[in-house]
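As a warm-up, study this chain.
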Amino acid sequence: MQETMTMTRDELFKKVQEVLEEALGADEDEITLETSLTRDLEAESIDFLDIVFRLEKTFSTSDKPFKVGQGELFPENLMENPEWVQDGKLTDVGMSMLKERMPHVDFSQFESDREVSKVAELITVNSIVEFVERKLAA
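Now compare it with the structure written out below.
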């Protein structure tokens, strides 16, 4: 078995692609780096749990378990904190918290809108590959 630490970005993408095919019943050609999990693959919150489980299983090795903490890969409970969200949009404090917690996500297109309901659309296949890459390197 190949050590996960030595995987190339392409190999990581392939494994993430396989995880998403299994978890979401998507076809390989539907899953590119730019694919949004919710917008393009219609993933729902229950699917996120399955994805996390499958990522942990796929990237764990006997000497190094791959664990994803709650809210680490996908945002959770944003609406419950009035410091983070007001009138359905992320506040400056909310934006900094998301960027800090989720460095694997590209928020550049989101800055001007900040609508909380659209946060999930920012989770792309690339952001998952980036997340796994960072986590394996840690």
